[in-house]
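S.,

Sequence below, as promised.
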Amino acid sequence: MKKRLVIFGAGDIAQIAHSYFSTDSDYEVVAFTVDGAYLTQAEFCGLPVVPFESATEAYPPSAHAMFVALSYTKLNALRRQKYEAAKASGYEIASYVSSRASVLNGGDIGENCFIFEDNTIQPFAKIGDNVTLWSGNHIGHHSTIASHTFIASHVVVSGGVEIGEQCFIGVNATLRDHIKIGDRCVIGAGALILSDAEPEGVYMAQATERSKVPSTKLRRI
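The prediction came back faster than expected:
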């Protein structure tokens, strides 16, 4: 018998979570919940949406788990706040780990993690609570990703890297081995980080500029 699951959220991330949990997990999604002030619809994905303030009455923690399906808004602070609120309400906190991810670290993965397909998590890596790994990342051996961090797609985290809490790592970023990324750092898309990053640092790769030659003037395309 599948475990009954309530998803916090009613946006794109919640819709994606519903799809993954429904097709590739031991959970049955039975409802959604949001803060009462943001409740604008009675149903989402064909299921009830209830105010979080009364969720424990409609879906008791004794018989339901919860998953907080939010993005990296406010540098993951909002997802952290709602995760902690769900946990304080007495809910078991679910994680989703794709059956198509290569999890080689013995399952050392925390609560409320959202780990998509094609992630490779090498031996002795540690994943904290409330961490999102979008599709296609490499998490190197003996690396640690602290809680409440969001890693976008196709990021390379080399061996022995320490990533702090509430970080955001953008698509195609590369972190060399044995460096430390401080709490609340933002590593932009395509960035190459070769040394330690102090907390609250912002690292952005230079964007490709438009050529002065228009596409209609190119001879070989």
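The mean pLDDT is 97.

Coffee later?
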